[in-house]
């Protein structure tokens, strides 16, 4: 495979490896971005969603009379109006441990007979204005016979717990197992030492800067829907809406995504509100717009994490890992998201051994339905928490066995000479040097100087702790991605690909790859991702795979464009194709000074160049790229915290990291991605948690009640890199978007526990919890 390697990288100003500023930023920072709420169509009406205020109950009646009489109201839709619609699919094909299919309860657009969580959509009001729709929604009267509710996954799986669905005993929709249970049992029985921990992977609100919104319209002449909404991939959302929701051919649905103000996994698939919106547009014969508010987002956007894990690790007398077991209760919420149990099952399995030689794993997961908001993928989606479990076990085992924290990791790390390494997860690590990354991080963080820093903190009345976390992620599963290049009339070149930028900076990084490969001027390159009608395939953005998939697609498309260009240039330069060489954006007749630049060739084609039938008629390319196997970004993060013993407040005061992301296309963007992921990890570790009361009401339903990390919670980051190129994709990249979370959870919480003298504490380590831990 022709992979980009560090030694091959050009020193071009806009080439691969250069810290090129984001081309998107001037538009976004000056308020010229176009988000869904910025779009307004002629004649549009407005929708507002009526949501259940009770967590569980039977719908006895819905009184619409007073609401329909309100000014400006055009229609009100309930479940009976959506009788011909499908449901939101859970697309993962998991089996129970006994081989039977998992339970996949129907997820309708509007609640049909039963509401199952606070925020469950029951009706949509459509009116001439947004305020009229909101006012009328308050007049919709719901008669709901309340039922008992359960919000904790461990409690929900017990005998006698309130049941959300008939035919789903104990609310367990999937009883999952992976690994060799008998071998694990033998390893634990014969171990010199066993470490056990119960760990909470706290549920979090995604809280993207831009709330969800959408505009639906319908063209009766073409019998085609157009849907404008924030997403993580227009092609995938189009397919889901057409196939599962509307049950129409895919060419009868067009999805357009403009700028997206954050997603982190949450905007990856269809939502219930989209059903009545599409129905209303067709029935009313006019566009209908819906914009959620923050209160609605807190109860209806997919939330993240939400697991309780009994984790255990078996060791021999020298501290070598013999086996790892994880027994997981995973909260699914009231309905399954499109990926449903995957973060708590397959993703956990793939990432659980991290960078450590682990002969045997045994993973058991009960995926449990509760009367809460649906759980979906959230930055890392099973990968950060799997690394967190292992790192907490290793720190605890080191203390219990009297082994230094660094030493126990060194004894168990997979060595460079063992790669390619086939893990018990079924993954084969193709590249990496984990001990080198580790040693570099120890030195880079000045681990040996910590005692002096701790003494200085103690002199100020503060408790200081240091924590380390190795991590490894499994990113970018195989798939297809579009590689499209289009030479425009205005002299620009458009990259067309099916990933989607919702904050990552794709335009800049993708342009660097194309510029490096083809010599097309950087400032002439544009990017198109968000129109499903322009795509032949598209994997969307998720799983830290965009550079691997779209980058590879761009390289393949660039090579195809060069080959087409050689044939056209041979005709223009009146020579054989075999004589045409290509370098630095120019086609040259070998051994001569006769040449033509690629952009000049494109100009001639636009000007009506007469080409023979057996010669390509343009430089344009449209292909489906087969993406490579997964990649394995890894690294080592070191955090230091200070605790105020009088208040329990935890501050992250020092943070160092060394990462292996393979070939880094744009180091500035990559470091920024790491910063963002770390801050979200700090948020989960120290302050974020969705809470419900005993009746099932959410008590963290706004930013007044739910703590988010701010700038003052983020330390100055120290960043270093130790890249080992990936061998399984054309770019050599490994993915970086979610790695910050994976390194932050373990390093921050290990530092907190260290500051507490080794006393375990669960996330989030809030001031109250820390104070109670200190004061008994």
From TrEMBL:
Molecular function (Gene Ontology), one example: iron ion binding
Entry-linked Pfam families: Ald_Xan_dh_C, MoCoBD_1, MoCoBD_2
Domain called Aldehyde oxidase/xanthine dehydrogenase a/b hammerhead: residue spans: 30-148
Recorded superkingdom: Bacteria
Keywords: Molybdenum, Oxidoreductase
PANTHER family for this protein: ALDEHYDE OXIDASE 1-RELATED, XANTHINE DEHYDROGENASE
Protein name, UniProt field: Carbon-monoxide dehydrogenase large subunit
Species whose genome carries this gene: Thalassobaculum litoreum DSM 18839
């Amino acid at each position: 495979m022709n992979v980009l390697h560090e030694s091959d990288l050009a020193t071009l100003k806009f080439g691969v490896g250069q810290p090129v500023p984001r081309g998107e930023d001037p538009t976004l920072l000056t308020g010229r971005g176009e988000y869904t709420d910025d779009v307004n169509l002629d004649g549009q009406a407005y929708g507002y969603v009526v949501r259940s205020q009770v967590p569980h109950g039977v719908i006895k009646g819905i009184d619409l009379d007073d609401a329909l009489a309100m000014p400006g109201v055009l229609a009100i839709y309930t479940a009976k109006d959506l009788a011909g619609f499908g449901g939101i699919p859970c697309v993962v094909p998991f089996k129970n441990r006994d081989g039977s299919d998992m339970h996949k309860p129907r997820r309708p657009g509007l609640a049909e007979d039963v509401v199952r969580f606070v925020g469950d959509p029951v009706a949509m009001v459509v009116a001439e204005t947004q305020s009229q729709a909101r006012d009328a929604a308050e007049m919709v009267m719901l008669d709901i016979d309340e039922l008992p509710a359960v919000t904790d996954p461990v409690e929900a799986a017990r005998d006698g717990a309130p049941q959300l669905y008939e035919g789903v005993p104990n609310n367990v929709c999937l009883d999952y197992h992976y690994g060799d249970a008998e071998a694990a049992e033998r390893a634990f029985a014969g171990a010199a030492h066993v470490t056990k921990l119960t760990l909470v992977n706290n549920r979090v609100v995604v809280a993207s800067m831009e709330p969800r919104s959408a505009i639906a319209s319908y063209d009766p002449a073409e019998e085609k829907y157009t849907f404008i909404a924030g997403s993580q991939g227009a092609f995938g959302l189009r397919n889901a809406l057409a196939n599962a929701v509307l049950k129409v051919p895919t060419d009868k649905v067009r999805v357009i995504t403009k700028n997206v103000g954050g997603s982190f996994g949450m905007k990856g698939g269809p939502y219930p509100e989209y059903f009545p919106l599409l129905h209303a547009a067709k029935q009313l014969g006019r566009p209908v717009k819906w914009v959620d508010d923050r209160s609605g987002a807190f109860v209806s956007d997919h939330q993240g994490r939400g697991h309780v894990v009994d984790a255990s690790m078996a060791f021999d007398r020298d501290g070598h890992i013999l086996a790892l077991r994880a027994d997981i209760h995973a909260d699914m919420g009231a309905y399954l998201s499109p990926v449903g149990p995957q973060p708590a099952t397959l993703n956990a399995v793939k990432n659980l051994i991290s960078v450590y030689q682990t002969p045997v794993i045994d993973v058991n997961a009960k995926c449990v339905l509760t009367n809460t908001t649906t759980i979906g993928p959230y930055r890392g989606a099973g990968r950060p928490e799997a690394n967190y479990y292992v790192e907490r076990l290793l720190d605890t085992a080191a203390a219990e066995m009297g082994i230094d924290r660094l030493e126990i990791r060194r004894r168990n790390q997979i060595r460079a000479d063992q790669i390619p390494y086939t893990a018990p997860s079924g993954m084969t690590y193709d590249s990496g040097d984990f001990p080198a990354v580790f040693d570099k991080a120890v030195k880079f963080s000045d681990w040996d100087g910590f005692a002096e820093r701790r003494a200085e903190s103690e002199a100020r009345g503060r408790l200081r702790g240091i924590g380390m976390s190795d991590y490894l992620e499994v990113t970018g599963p195989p798939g297809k991605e579009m590689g499209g290049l289009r030479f425009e009339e205005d002299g620009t070149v458009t990259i067309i690909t099916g990933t989607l930028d919702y904050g990552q900076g794709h335009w800049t990084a993708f342009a660097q790859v194309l510029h490096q490969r083809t010599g097309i001027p950087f400032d002439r390159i544009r990017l198109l991702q968000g129109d499903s009608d322009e795509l032949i395939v598209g994997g969307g953005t998720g799983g830290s795979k965009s550079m691997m998939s779209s980058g590879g697609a761009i390289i393949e498309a660039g090579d195809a464009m060069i080959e087409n260009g050689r044939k056209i240039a041979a005709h223009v330069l009146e020579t054989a194709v075999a004589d045409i060489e290509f370098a630095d954006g120019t086609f040259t007749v070998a051994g001569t000074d006769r040449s033509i630049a690629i952009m000049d060739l494109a100009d001639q084609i636009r000007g009506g160049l007469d080409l023979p039938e057996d010669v390509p008629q343009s430089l344009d390319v449209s292909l489906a790229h087969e993406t490579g196997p997964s990649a394995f970004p890894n690294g080592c993060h070191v955090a230091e915290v200070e605790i105020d013993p009088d208040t329990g407040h935890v501050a992250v005061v020092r943070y160092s990291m060394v990462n292996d992301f393979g070939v880094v296309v744009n180091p500035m963007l990559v470091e920024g991605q790491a910063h963002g992921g770390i801050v979200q990890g700090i948020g989960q570790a120290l302050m974020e948690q969705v809470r419900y009361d005993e009746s099932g009401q959410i008590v963290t339903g706004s930013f007044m009640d739910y703590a988010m990390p701010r700038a003052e919670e983020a330390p100055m980051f120290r960043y270093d890199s130790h890249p080992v190129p990936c061998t399984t994709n054309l770019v050599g990249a490994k993915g970086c978007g979610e790695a910050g979370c994976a390194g932050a959870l373990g390093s921050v919480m290990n530092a907190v526990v260290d500051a507490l003298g080794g006393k375990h504490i669960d996330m989030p380590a809030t001031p109250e919890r820390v104070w109670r831990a200190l004061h008994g």
